[in-house]
Amino acid sequence: MLYRQIFKLGFKKSYEYKVNFYMGLVSTVFPLTIQYFLWSGLFENANGGMVFGYTFMQMVSYAVFAVLTTKMISPSFVYEINMEIKEGGLAKYLVRPLSYFKYHFMGYLGEKIGIILCASILIIGFWAGAGWFAGGELSVSRLLLYFASLNLGLILNFTIFYGISSMGFWMIDASGAIFITTLIGTIVSGGIFPLDIFSQGIQNALHLLPFPYTSYFSVSILCGTIGKEGIAAGLGLQLFWIAICGLLSKALWKIGMKRYIAVGG
Fold first, then answer.
1. Contact in structure between 127 and 222 (CB atoms under 8 Å)
2. Tell me, what's the pLDDT at 265?
3. DSSP state string for 77-120
């Protein structure tokens, strides 16, 4: 019951400032516009109409799906945790009969519901429109698998950045480090452009990390650039990384809590 209330509060929080909520969605238009003109220029000089193994429509589709997917799983809670550690606000949660991990996880899910609903409508609309325009076959099964992997990616991203938020225990103010880590994480997760643009060696190295399984994998399913065996393996790796990152995050927090000294709050 308690965590259900936290979930509802997170949902209400996402709509507390409606202008900010909708402006956040509208802001995705600007990076997409830049990418459209960038890829248009590259494809004009491409041999065979392919760049990095993508057609122009596939690349534009990837950009749209990646930006919206990243928006849905973005870890805004990390800055909140950093401030709670820095200002001593964490102390009030430690004396309450609740799990700090579950508290932020349920709040995170609640905040994301509104964004997921709006972004999902945009994704389905663009997916159907792009498929019709390109004259390709629309695979409903791939759409469903995308949303299944999106749910796992959402959980995985939380476990990754919950662990990253523990930097606050070792730094006076970890906001700068969190910003850089989030930016790098967005790039290596395929949240801006497909990882196929990197050399094969870099791609192999990135796939040893959990980041590609938050955005790149899910978007690749929707774009049809990954086969059935790859999808099955990817879903398994998402579950694997959720377990590993969850354990690592809790271990980091356990170590960090031994250093924590509440001042203020």
1. yes
2. 46
3. HHHHHHHHHHHTTTHHHHTSSS-HHHHHHHHHHHHHHHHHHHHH
State the CB neighbour count (10 A cutoff) for residue 130: 19
* Cβ pair 168, 82 in contact under 8 A: yes
Q: Whats the size of the chain, residue-wise?
A: 265
CB 69 within 8 A of CB 219: yes
Q: Is the pTM of this model over 0.85?
A: yes
3-state secondary structure (DSSP) of residue 21: helix
At CA 114, angle to CA 112 and CA 119, rounded to 5? 90
Contacts of 137 (CB under 8 A, 6+ apart): 131
DSSP H stretches of helix in 213-227 = 216-223
What's the one-letter identity of residue 164? Answer: I
Whether the CB-CB separation of 42 and 35 falls below 8 Å is answered with: no
As a whole number of angstroms, the longest Cα–Cα distance in the chain is 64
**Pair of tokens at residue 19:** 């202008």
pLDDT tens digits, 38-72: 888 888 877 777 888 888 888 888 999 999 999 88
Q: What is the pLDDT of residues 175-208, one digit of tens each?
A: 888 889 888 999 999 988 899 888 899 999 999 9
Which residue do the tokens 């192999």 mark? 204
* Cβ atoms 158, 152 nearer than 8 A: no
Q: How far apart are CA 156 and CA 245, in angstroms?
A: 7
- Residues 6 or more apart whose CB falls under 8 angstroms from that of 242 comprise 152, 155, 156, 159
